[in-house]
Specification:
Number of strands: 11
Shape: globular
Strand order of the largest sheet: 1-2-3-4
Distance between the termini: 28 Å
Oligomer: single chain
Order of helices and strands: EHHEHEEEEEEHEEE
Length: about 170
């Protein structure tokens, strides 16, 4: 497998995820954002300036438009030494399952909006979603409070719509 070196601050989210999870063995979730991935990698290795990730070949690039290598590993968006056409990573689709929750709205579809474009996402069943909508779900948090045994109030953030990515690739 051919590899390519990429400056850490120029690496894509997929390249950072591949490097953090596969090369460094860090425990990162599939929905971890680019900023958090950079922070985790820098925390584990503060002197790291560039990363080495697999290079996508012409055959793998045409077979998989979402920049994943044929072995299922996330790879660098490069083809035979030439930069691949820029594809907006927020337009990539993944399979998402939004959990049902208790309460009066626990069965209702979740309304998700990005730049004036609104969709309704059903709960309790896997659905294909563009990453731009997944990011909105990821950032939809509420501040909750609880009282400790010594009477002190503590706050924490909880996801409004608990979800999980069930598949990184969507076939249509």
């Amino acid at each position: 497998m051919q590899t390519v070196k990429v400056a850490l601050n120029e690496a894509s989210r997929d390249q950072l995820f591949y490097y953090a999870s596969t090369i460094m063995g860090l425990d990162v979730k599939h929905n971890t954002g680019e900023t958090k991935l950079l922070a985790k990698i820098s925390e584990a290795n503060p002197d790291l300036k560039e990363i080495e990730v697999p290079e996508v070949t012409q055959a793998a690039d045409s077979a998989t438009a979402d920049n994943t290598a044929s072995e299922g590993q996330t790879a660098a968006p490069q083809t035979a030494g030439k930069p691949a056409p820029k594809v907006d990573p927020m337009e990539r689709k993944v399979m998402v399952l939004i959990d049902r929750t208790e309460g009066r709205d626990g069965e209702r579809p979740v309304q998700v909006s990005v730049n004036g474009s609104m969709i309704l996402v059903p709960r309790g069943e896997p659905v294909p979603l563009k990453m731009k909508y997944v990011k909105v779900l990821e950032n939809a948090v509420a501040t909750r409070y609880h009282q400790t045994e010594d009477g002190e109030m503590k706050s924490y953030e909880a996801q409004l719509y608990p979800f999980r990515i069930t598949s990184e690739t969507v076939t249509e």
